[in-house]
Specification:
Shape: elongated
Order of helices and strands: HEEEH
Helix content: 10-25%
Strand order of the largest sheet: 1-2-3
Oligomer: single chain
Structural class: alpha+beta
Mean pLDDT: 87
Radius of gyration: 18 Å
Number of strands: 3
Distance between the termini: 48 Å
Number of helices: 2
């Protein structure tokens, strides 16, 4: 990504992992190109947005939320 950032003239802001640069980072438990690998941690704008082992840092899915009727009750 450094070459692309250099071509765009933004290598001072992004393109490599260094203090003070913009980057979103995903840590994988294996080869990121394998269908069996899972994202363990995700950092967006310097803040941890996801952790595989911390339910508080996992997104709620429609399955988790369930189907609700207009009064807010689960069906």
């Amino acid at each position: 990504t450094l070459n692309a950032a250099h071509a765009l003239g933004i290598e001072e802001q992004t393109g490599s992992i260094e203090a003070g640069k913009m980057a979103d980072i995903v840590l994988w438990d294996g080869n990121p190109f394998s269908v069996y690998s899972r994202a363990e941690k995700v950092f967006i704008d310097g803040a941890q947005a996801y952790d595989l082992h911390d339910p508080a840092l996992q997104p709620a899915t429609d399955f988790d939320l369930g189907i609700m009727d207009p009064e807010g009750e689960r069906l």
